[in-house]
Specification:
There is one protein chain. The protein has 282 residues and is α/β, with parallel strands linked by helices. The protein is built from 13 helices and 9 strands. A hairpin with a 2-residue loop joins β2 and β3. The protein binds ligand C2E and magnesium ion (3 copies). It comes from Metarhizobium album.
Protein backbone atom coordinates (compact mmCIF):
# COMPACT_ATOMS: atom_id res chain seq x y z
CA UNK A 1 0.00 0.00 0.00
CA UNK A 2 2.75 2.42 0.90
CA UNK A 3 4.52 1.54 -2.33
CA UNK A 4 1.52 2.31 -4.58
CA UNK A 5 0.89 5.66 -2.96
CA UNK A 6 4.49 6.65 -3.54
CA UNK A 7 6.10 9.49 -1.64
CA UNK A 8 2.82 10.69 -0.28
CA UNK A 9 2.16 7.32 1.25
CA UNK A 10 5.55 7.29 2.83
CA UNK A 11 4.94 10.74 4.27
CA UNK A 12 1.62 9.60 5.72
CA UNK A 13 3.32 6.54 7.08
CA UNK A 14 6.08 8.59 8.71
CA UNK A 15 3.52 10.92 10.24
CA UNK A 16 1.76 7.98 11.82
CA UNK A 17 4.93 6.50 13.23
CA UNK A 18 4.98 6.24 16.98
CA UNK A 19 7.24 8.46 19.01
CA UNK A 20 9.35 5.41 19.78
CA UNK A 21 9.77 4.55 16.10
CA UNK A 22 10.76 8.10 15.21
CA UNK A 23 13.21 8.17 18.09
CA UNK A 24 14.71 4.99 16.68
CA UNK A 25 15.14 6.52 13.22
CA UNK A 26 16.83 9.55 14.82
CA UNK A 27 19.14 7.40 16.96
CA UNK A 28 20.09 5.32 13.93
CA UNK A 29 21.09 8.42 11.98
CA UNK A 30 23.07 9.76 14.92
CA UNK A 31 24.82 6.45 15.50
CA UNK A 32 25.80 6.26 11.84
CA UNK A 33 27.27 9.77 12.09
CA UNK A 34 29.00 8.84 15.34
CA UNK A 35 30.86 5.99 13.67
CA UNK A 36 31.94 8.28 10.83
CA UNK A 37 32.92 11.15 13.14
CA UNK A 38 34.90 9.18 15.70
CA UNK A 39 32.43 9.75 18.54
CA UNK A 40 32.71 6.16 19.64
CA UNK A 41 35.34 5.50 22.25
CA UNK A 42 36.78 2.22 23.41
CA UNK A 43 37.44 1.44 27.06
CA UNK A 44 39.58 -1.46 28.21
CA UNK A 45 38.84 -3.75 31.15
CA UNK A 46 41.86 -5.57 32.61
CA UNK A 47 41.88 -9.32 33.02
CA UNK A 48 44.03 -11.25 35.46
CA UNK A 49 45.62 -14.67 35.24
CA UNK A 50 44.60 -16.50 38.44
CA UNK A 51 47.69 -18.70 38.44
CA UNK A 52 50.31 -15.96 38.12
CA UNK A 53 48.35 -13.01 39.51
CA UNK A 54 49.42 -10.93 36.50
CA UNK A 55 47.36 -8.86 34.11
CA UNK A 56 47.08 -11.06 31.03
CA UNK A 57 44.71 -9.13 28.81
CA UNK A 58 41.99 -6.54 28.39
CA UNK A 59 38.52 -6.56 26.86
CA UNK A 60 37.67 -3.74 24.45
CA UNK A 61 34.24 -2.29 25.28
CA UNK A 62 32.64 0.42 23.17
CA UNK A 63 31.02 3.60 24.54
CA UNK A 64 29.30 6.46 22.72
CA UNK A 65 30.16 10.04 23.54
CA UNK A 66 26.74 11.53 22.86
CA UNK A 67 25.17 14.83 23.87
CA UNK A 68 27.57 15.30 26.75
CA UNK A 69 27.33 11.86 28.27
CA UNK A 70 28.93 8.48 27.85
CA UNK A 71 26.28 6.10 26.52
CA UNK A 72 26.77 2.43 27.42
CA UNK A 73 26.54 -0.38 24.84
CA UNK A 74 23.28 -1.73 26.27
CA UNK A 75 21.61 1.44 24.97
CA UNK A 76 22.82 1.27 21.38
CA UNK A 77 24.21 -2.18 20.49
CA UNK A 78 20.71 -3.68 20.03
CA UNK A 79 19.83 -0.84 17.64
CA UNK A 80 23.12 -1.27 15.79
CA UNK A 81 22.38 -4.98 15.43
CA UNK A 82 18.87 -4.36 14.17
CA UNK A 83 19.98 -1.83 11.55
CA UNK A 84 23.14 -3.58 10.41
CA UNK A 85 25.32 -0.73 11.67
CA UNK A 86 26.93 -3.27 13.97
CA UNK A 87 29.30 -4.34 11.18
CA UNK A 88 30.80 -0.87 10.76
CA UNK A 89 30.80 -0.42 14.53
CA UNK A 90 32.53 -3.73 15.11
CA UNK A 91 35.22 -2.97 12.53
CA UNK A 92 35.74 0.43 14.12
CA UNK A 93 36.24 -1.10 17.57
CA UNK A 94 38.58 -3.81 16.30
CA UNK A 95 40.63 -1.26 14.37
CA UNK A 96 40.90 1.03 17.40
CA UNK A 97 41.70 -1.81 19.80
CA UNK A 98 44.42 -3.34 17.62
CA UNK A 99 46.07 0.04 17.06
CA UNK A 100 45.87 0.80 20.79
CA UNK A 101 47.41 -2.48 21.90
CA UNK A 102 50.16 -2.08 19.31
CA UNK A 103 50.84 1.46 20.58
CA UNK A 104 51.16 0.19 24.17
CA UNK A 105 53.61 -2.44 22.99
CA UNK A 106 55.61 0.15 21.07
CA UNK A 107 55.71 2.27 24.25
CA UNK A 108 57.31 -0.61 26.12
CA UNK A 109 54.33 -1.92 28.09
CA UNK A 110 54.57 -5.68 28.59
CA UNK A 111 52.35 -7.19 25.85
CA UNK A 112 48.89 -8.55 26.67
CA UNK A 113 45.91 -9.76 24.66
CA UNK A 114 42.93 -7.71 23.62
CA UNK A 115 39.49 -9.31 23.41
CA UNK A 116 37.10 -7.79 20.88
CA UNK A 117 33.40 -8.66 20.74
CA UNK A 118 32.01 -9.82 17.41
CA UNK A 119 28.31 -9.82 16.68
CA UNK A 120 26.37 -12.42 14.69
CA UNK A 121 26.05 -10.21 11.60
CA UNK A 122 29.79 -9.70 11.41
CA UNK A 123 30.40 -13.41 11.88
CA UNK A 124 28.02 -14.15 8.99
CA UNK A 125 29.70 -11.64 6.66
CA UNK A 126 31.57 -13.71 4.05
CA UNK A 127 34.34 -11.07 3.89
CA UNK A 128 34.81 -11.07 7.65
CA UNK A 129 38.10 -13.01 7.86
CA UNK A 130 39.64 -10.80 5.18
CA UNK A 131 38.60 -7.71 7.16
CA UNK A 132 40.17 -9.03 10.35
CA UNK A 133 43.37 -9.82 8.45
CA UNK A 134 43.41 -6.30 6.97
CA UNK A 135 42.86 -4.70 10.38
CA UNK A 136 45.73 -6.72 11.87
CA UNK A 137 48.15 -5.80 9.12
CA UNK A 138 47.13 -2.13 9.14
CA UNK A 139 47.84 -2.08 12.89
CA UNK A 140 51.03 -4.09 12.43
CA UNK A 141 49.86 -6.26 15.32
CA UNK A 142 51.01 -9.84 15.85
CA UNK A 143 47.73 -11.84 15.56
CA UNK A 144 48.45 -13.73 18.80
CA UNK A 145 47.46 -10.60 20.74
CA UNK A 146 43.94 -10.50 19.32
CA UNK A 147 41.13 -12.63 20.71
CA UNK A 148 37.69 -12.48 19.12
CA UNK A 149 34.71 -13.08 21.41
CA UNK A 150 31.70 -14.82 19.91
CA UNK A 151 28.60 -16.29 21.56
CA UNK A 152 26.97 -19.69 21.67
CA UNK A 153 23.89 -18.73 19.67
CA UNK A 154 26.11 -17.61 16.78
CA UNK A 155 27.78 -20.98 16.33
CA UNK A 156 25.25 -23.57 17.44
CA UNK A 157 22.71 -23.46 14.57
CA UNK A 158 25.08 -24.46 11.77
CA UNK A 159 27.95 -26.21 13.47
CA UNK A 160 29.83 -27.25 10.32
CA UNK A 161 29.73 -23.76 8.83
CA UNK A 162 30.76 -22.20 12.16
CA UNK A 163 33.72 -24.55 12.48
CA UNK A 164 34.81 -23.53 8.98
CA UNK A 165 34.54 -19.79 9.76
CA UNK A 166 36.23 -20.17 13.13
CA UNK A 167 39.07 -22.15 11.56
CA UNK A 168 39.58 -19.38 9.00
CA UNK A 169 39.99 -16.96 11.89
CA UNK A 170 42.33 -19.11 13.93
CA UNK A 171 44.39 -19.71 10.77
CA UNK A 172 45.19 -16.00 10.90
CA UNK A 173 46.87 -16.68 14.24
CA UNK A 174 44.24 -15.05 16.46
CA UNK A 175 42.36 -16.87 19.23
CA UNK A 176 38.65 -17.31 19.88
CA UNK A 177 36.69 -17.09 23.11
CA UNK A 178 33.10 -18.09 23.77
CA UNK A 179 31.47 -15.17 25.59
CA UNK A 180 28.66 -15.33 28.17
CA UNK A 181 29.12 -19.08 28.41
CA UNK A 182 26.35 -20.97 30.16
CA UNK A 183 23.52 -18.68 29.09
CA UNK A 184 22.94 -20.34 25.71
CA UNK A 185 22.10 -23.84 24.70
CA UNK A 186 25.46 -25.32 23.82
CA UNK A 187 25.54 -29.02 23.77
CA UNK A 188 28.66 -29.72 25.72
CA UNK A 189 29.68 -32.49 23.33
CA UNK A 190 29.61 -30.00 20.43
CA UNK A 191 32.05 -27.69 22.18
CA UNK A 192 34.98 -29.93 21.43
CA UNK A 193 34.44 -29.58 17.66
CA UNK A 194 35.13 -25.83 17.82
CA UNK A 195 38.61 -24.28 17.75
CA UNK A 196 38.07 -22.34 20.98
CA UNK A 197 40.84 -21.14 23.29
CA UNK A 198 38.63 -19.95 26.09
CA UNK A 199 35.20 -20.06 27.69
CA UNK A 200 34.10 -16.87 29.40
CA UNK A 201 31.83 -17.99 32.23
CA UNK A 202 28.84 -15.68 32.33
CA UNK A 203 28.58 -13.28 35.23
CA UNK A 204 25.15 -14.67 36.19
CA UNK A 205 26.84 -17.77 37.64
CA UNK A 206 29.58 -15.74 39.31
CA UNK A 207 26.97 -13.54 40.98
CA UNK A 208 25.65 -16.53 42.92
CA UNK A 209 28.99 -17.23 44.60
CA UNK A 210 29.09 -17.97 47.51
CA UNK A 211 25.36 -17.82 48.40
CA UNK A 212 23.87 -20.02 45.68
CA UNK A 213 24.93 -23.67 45.82
CA UNK A 214 23.50 -24.35 42.36
CA UNK A 215 25.51 -21.56 40.73
CA UNK A 216 28.64 -22.84 42.43
CA UNK A 217 27.93 -26.38 41.24
CA UNK A 218 27.39 -25.15 37.67
CA UNK A 219 30.53 -23.02 37.72
CA UNK A 220 32.60 -25.93 39.07
CA UNK A 221 31.17 -28.31 36.48
CA UNK A 222 31.94 -25.92 33.61
CA UNK A 223 35.48 -25.40 34.90
CA UNK A 224 36.27 -29.10 35.19
CA UNK A 225 34.68 -29.92 31.84
CA UNK A 226 36.66 -27.15 30.10
CA UNK A 227 39.84 -28.39 31.71
CA UNK A 228 39.24 -31.89 30.39
CA UNK A 229 38.57 -30.49 26.91
CA UNK A 230 41.77 -28.44 27.08
CA UNK A 231 39.96 -25.10 26.91
CA UNK A 232 40.94 -22.20 29.15
CA UNK A 233 38.37 -20.48 31.35
CA UNK A 234 37.77 -16.88 32.33
CA UNK A 235 35.18 -15.76 34.86
CA UNK A 236 33.25 -12.58 34.05
CA UNK A 237 31.78 -10.15 36.55
CA UNK A 238 33.97 -11.03 39.54
CA UNK A 239 33.14 -8.43 42.17
CA UNK A 240 34.73 -9.67 45.40
CA UNK A 241 37.53 -11.72 46.91
CA UNK A 242 35.29 -14.65 47.84
CA UNK A 243 34.27 -15.12 44.22
CA UNK A 244 37.83 -14.86 42.99
CA UNK A 245 39.13 -17.38 45.52
CA UNK A 246 36.34 -19.86 44.91
CA UNK A 247 36.89 -19.69 41.15
CA UNK A 248 40.66 -19.93 41.41
CA UNK A 249 40.38 -22.95 43.72
CA UNK A 250 37.89 -24.57 41.32
CA UNK A 251 40.49 -24.30 38.56
CA UNK A 252 39.43 -21.14 36.74
CA UNK A 253 42.32 -19.75 34.66
CA UNK A 254 41.54 -16.03 34.47
CA UNK A 255 39.15 -13.42 35.83
CA UNK A 256 37.65 -10.10 34.78
CA UNK A 257 35.45 -7.90 36.91
CA UNK A 258 35.06 -4.80 39.02
CA UNK A 259 37.04 -6.47 41.82
CA UNK A 260 40.12 -6.09 39.62
CA UNK A 261 39.08 -2.97 37.71
CA UNK A 262 36.28 -1.33 35.75
CA UNK A 263 36.61 -0.76 32.02
CA UNK A 264 39.07 2.17 31.74
CA UNK A 265 39.88 4.77 29.09
CA UNK A 266 43.24 4.08 27.38
CA UNK A 267 45.40 6.40 29.50
CA UNK A 268 44.02 5.03 32.77
CA UNK A 269 44.39 1.47 31.54
CA UNK A 270 48.04 2.03 30.83
CA UNK A 271 48.53 3.53 34.27
CA UNK A 272 46.70 0.60 35.88
CA UNK A 273 48.80 -2.01 34.09
CA UNK A 274 52.03 -0.20 34.84
CA UNK A 275 51.26 0.23 38.54
CA UNK A 276 49.54 -3.07 39.14
CA UNK A 277 51.38 -4.98 41.78
CA UNK A 278 50.76 -8.64 42.08
CA UNK A 279 49.51 -9.33 45.59
CA UNK A 280 50.32 -12.73 47.06
CA UNK A 281 47.23 -14.90 47.49
CA UNK A 282 46.34 -15.92 51.00
P1 LIG B 1 30.29 -8.56 27.43
O1 LIG B 1 31.09 -8.79 26.20
O2 LIG B 1 29.85 -9.77 28.19
O3 LIG B 1 31.16 -7.58 28.35
C1 LIG B 1 31.18 -7.62 29.73
C2 LIG B 1 30.27 -6.58 30.34
O4 LIG B 1 30.23 -6.76 31.74
C3 LIG B 1 30.72 -5.14 30.12
O5 LIG B 1 29.56 -4.32 30.03
C4 LIG B 1 31.47 -4.84 31.41
O6 LIG B 1 31.57 -3.46 31.72
C5 LIG B 1 30.59 -5.55 32.41
N1 LIG B 1 31.30 -5.91 33.64
C6 LIG B 1 32.61 -6.19 33.77
N2 LIG B 1 32.90 -6.53 35.06
C7 LIG B 1 31.76 -6.44 35.74
C8 LIG B 1 31.41 -6.65 37.13
O7 LIG B 1 32.24 -6.99 37.97
N3 LIG B 1 30.10 -6.48 37.47
C9 LIG B 1 29.17 -6.12 36.55
N4 LIG B 1 27.92 -5.97 36.99
N5 LIG B 1 29.45 -5.91 35.25
C10 LIG B 1 30.73 -6.07 34.84
P2 LIG B 1 29.38 -3.19 28.93
O8 LIG B 1 30.67 -2.51 28.67
O9 LIG B 1 28.18 -2.40 29.32
O10 LIG B 1 29.04 -4.05 27.63
C11 LIG B 1 27.87 -4.82 27.57
C12 LIG B 1 27.84 -5.72 26.37
O11 LIG B 1 27.80 -4.95 25.15
C13 LIG B 1 29.07 -6.61 26.23
O12 LIG B 1 28.95 -7.72 27.08
C14 LIG B 1 29.00 -6.97 24.76
O13 LIG B 1 28.09 -8.01 24.54
C15 LIG B 1 28.43 -5.70 24.15
N6 LIG B 1 29.53 -4.92 23.55
C16 LIG B 1 30.37 -4.02 24.10
N7 LIG B 1 31.24 -3.54 23.19
C17 LIG B 1 30.96 -4.17 22.02
C18 LIG B 1 31.50 -4.12 20.69
O14 LIG B 1 32.48 -3.43 20.39
N8 LIG B 1 30.91 -4.92 19.73
C19 LIG B 1 29.87 -5.73 20.02
N9 LIG B 1 29.33 -6.49 19.04
N10 LIG B 1 29.31 -5.82 21.26
C20 LIG B 1 29.87 -5.04 22.23
MG1 LIG C 1 32.68 -9.86 25.70
MG1 LIG D 1 30.78 -11.49 28.35
MG1 LIG E 1 28.30 -10.98 29.89
Amino acid sequence: RVKREGRDGVRKFTKCMSVAAREKVRMTKELRTAIENDELVVHYQPQKDLRTGKVCGVEALVRWQHEGRLVMPGEFIPLAEETGLICALGEFVMTKACAQVRAWQAAGVEPFKVGVNMSARQFQDPGMTRKVADILSAADLDPRWLEVEITESMIMCDVADSVRKMSELTALGISLALDDFGTGYSSLSTLKSFPLSRLKIDSSFVKGIPADENDMAIASAILSMAKKLGIQTMAEGVENAEQEHFLRDAGCCQMQGYYLARPLPPSELREFVTNYQELPYL
